[in-house]
Design goal:
The protein is mainly alpha-helical and 52 residues long. It is 65% helix and 0% strand. The longest helix is centred in the middle third of the chain and has 34 residues.
Length: 52
Protein backbone atom coordinates (compact mmCIF):
# COMPACT_ATOMS: atom_id res chain seq x y z
CA UNK A 1 0.00 0.00 0.00
CA UNK A 2 1.39 3.37 -1.03
CA UNK A 3 1.18 6.10 1.61
CA UNK A 4 1.00 9.65 0.31
CA UNK A 5 2.66 12.24 2.48
CA UNK A 6 0.62 15.43 2.83
CA UNK A 7 2.59 18.60 2.37
CA UNK A 8 1.16 21.83 3.73
CA UNK A 9 0.86 24.66 1.27
CA UNK A 10 -0.46 28.17 1.57
CA UNK A 11 -1.14 29.98 4.81
CA UNK A 12 0.93 27.91 7.20
CA UNK A 13 1.95 29.66 10.36
CA UNK A 14 5.62 30.29 10.86
CA UNK A 15 7.29 31.00 14.15
CA UNK A 16 8.10 34.71 14.23
CA UNK A 17 11.36 35.99 15.61
CA UNK A 18 11.15 37.11 19.25
CA UNK A 19 11.85 40.73 18.27
CA UNK A 20 8.87 40.86 15.92
CA UNK A 21 6.62 39.37 18.60
CA UNK A 22 7.40 42.27 20.93
CA UNK A 23 6.84 44.77 18.11
CA UNK A 24 3.53 43.11 17.21
CA UNK A 25 2.32 43.35 20.80
CA UNK A 26 3.19 47.06 20.99
CA UNK A 27 1.57 47.68 17.61
CA UNK A 28 -1.59 45.89 18.75
CA UNK A 29 -1.71 48.05 21.88
CA UNK A 30 -1.19 51.26 19.91
CA UNK A 31 -3.92 50.36 17.43
CA UNK A 32 -6.30 49.40 20.24
CA UNK A 33 -5.71 52.70 22.05
CA UNK A 34 -6.18 54.65 18.80
CA UNK A 35 -9.45 52.89 17.99
CA UNK A 36 -10.87 53.30 21.49
CA UNK A 37 -9.87 56.98 21.49
CA UNK A 38 -11.55 57.53 18.12
CA UNK A 39 -14.74 55.85 19.33
CA UNK A 40 -14.84 57.92 22.53
CA UNK A 41 -14.25 61.18 20.65
CA UNK A 42 -16.86 60.23 18.06
CA UNK A 43 -19.44 59.42 20.71
CA UNK A 44 -18.67 62.66 22.55
CA UNK A 45 -19.15 64.61 19.32
CA UNK A 46 -22.49 62.93 18.62
CA UNK A 47 -23.72 63.56 22.18
CA UNK A 48 -22.56 67.19 22.01
CA UNK A 49 -24.35 67.62 18.70
CA UNK A 50 -27.57 66.24 20.16
CA UNK A 51 -27.39 68.43 23.25
CA UNK A 52 -26.31 71.70 21.61
Amino acid sequence: MLMVRQVRHGATRRQPKPRSVVFDRWLDRIVTVAVVTAIVIGLAAVIAHWLL
